[in-house]
Amino acid sequence: MISLVEVQETNKMIREMNLDVRTITMGISLMDCAHTDMRTFNQNVYEKITRSAEKLVKTGEDLERQFGVPIVNKRISVTPIAIAAGAVKTDTYVPVAEILDKAAKEVGVNFIGGFSALVQKGCTKGDRILIDSIPEALAVTERVCSSVNVGSSRSGINMDAVKLMGDIIIQTAERTKDRDSIGCAKLVVFCNAVEDNPFMAGAFHGVGERECVINVGVSGPGVIKRALEEVRGQDFETLCETIKRTAFKVTRVGQLVAQEASKRMNVPFGIIDLSLAPTPEIGDSIAEIFQVMGLEEAGAPGTTAALAILNDNVKKGGVMASSYVGGLSGAFIPVSEDHGMIQAVQRGALTLEKLEAMTCVCSVGLDMIAIPGSTTKETISGIIADEAAIGMVNNKTTAVRVIPVIGKDVGEMVEFGGLLGYAPVMAVNGFNCANFVNRGGRIPAPIHSFKN
C-alpha cells in the first residue's frame, strides 16, 4: 500500500528537479476487430479505442491535480496493425493509420503507437503491406507512431527487412521533408522489441497482453542529478547507492499513479517502466548526470561506464518500488530530447560511433539522431544492422530512430518541437556497405539463444 506521505516527500523533486510521470499509456487489444472489409474493420477499431480510452485523459488530469505530480503524456498502444488488420483485403493500411489518428484526436491523447510489424523471422503479406504503407501513413497523420521489429536473440536478424527499412526511412523523410523529415521521428526499428513498452514511438500492445491494461512510464534525470550533487567526489559505492535510493523514490510515485489510474478506469495495471527519459529542458538531462559523475562532457572517455552504472542502479532501485516492472526500464539517450547531449554533439565530444558504443549498456539504442539528408538507404540499413546485432548478441532491446533530414547537412540545426526537441545534424561514416546489406537472407541467432 502506498501512502500519500510518500508522494508528499517528493514535492521538492517535482518543484525543483523536473520530476514527472512521463506517460500513462493504455494498451488496447484490437484482435476482436478483425474483418475482411476495410470500412468495417476501421469502424470496429475506432469504436474499440474511443470506448476503451474515453476517460484516459481526464483521469490523468484528475491525478495531476490530486497528487501534484505532472503527467506529461497520455497515450495509447494497440495490437500491431500488421496482425490486427491481417484479414483485411487491401493493398495499403494507410486508411487504418488515418482511423487511428482520428481516434487518438477524439480521446485527446498525444500519440498512438502500434502501426507496427514483427518480422524478425520473415514477412507475412500483412507485414509487407504495413511496411510499404509507413511513409504515407506517417506523412498524413499527426499522432500515429510506427515500429518494426527486425531481429531477436532467439531468431536472429532478418536482413531482408533491415535492407527494406533503410529504404522506408528515406521514403518517410522525403514525404515529410517540408517539416524537417519529422515522419522519421515517429518511426523506430527494433531488435528484441518488448510487448509492454509505454514510451513512443515504439509502443505497441503485444499479443501476450490482456485485453486492456494501464502502463506507466516514470522519469527523473533531474532528480538523480540533484541527488548525485550531494555526493560529488565520493566513491563509486556511494554513487551507486545514491542512484538506487533515488530511483526507488521516483518509481514509487509512478506506482501510485498507475494504481490510481487503474482503479478509476477499472482497467488492470500492467507495468511501471522506470526509465530515465530526458527532455530538452536544462536540468533534465542524462548528459548532465554524467558531468556530475565527473566527466567534462557526454562522450568523454568513461561515458559508457558511467551510463552502465546509471542504467544498472536505476533498475536495482526501481524493482524494489513496484510489483511489476517492465517496458524498457533504464536510461534513454535520445540526442534531440536531451539538452546536454545536444551540447556535447555541438562541442565535438559525442559522435555517432560513441553513441553506438553507449547503446551496449543503455535501455534502447540510437534514438532521435538527425543525420544528413544525403545519407544513402544502404548506410541507414548498415546502422540498423549494427544496432540489431548489439541487441541480438547481448539479449537486450536495441532500436534505431534516425532522421535523415532532407536538404540539411552536418552541423545544421533541426527543430522538431515539444518533447521531440531540436538537434544538430550529425556526421555519418561515408564508407560504402551496400554489398554487405544487399546479401539478403537472415543472420542466424547466436548460440546463447538456445538456452531454456
Structure description:
This protein is α/β, with parallel strands linked by helices. The chain contains 16 helices and 13 strands. A hairpin with a 6-residue loop joins β11 and β12. α3 runs parallel beside α6 (94-107) and α8 packs across α15 (377-394). The two termini are 35 Å apart.
Total strands: the figure is 13
Q: What is the H/E string?
A: HHEHHEHHEHEEHEEHHEHHHHEHEEEHE
Percent of residues in beta strands: 15-25%
Number of distinct helices: 16
Rg over C-alpha atoms, rounded to the nearest angstrom = 21 Å
The residue fraction in helices comes out at 40-55%
Largest sheet: 11 strands, mixed
Distance between the termini: 35 Å
- Structure classification: alpha/beta
- Bulk shape: globular
Stretches with pLDDT under 50, minimum 5 residues: none
Arithmetic mean pLDDT:
88
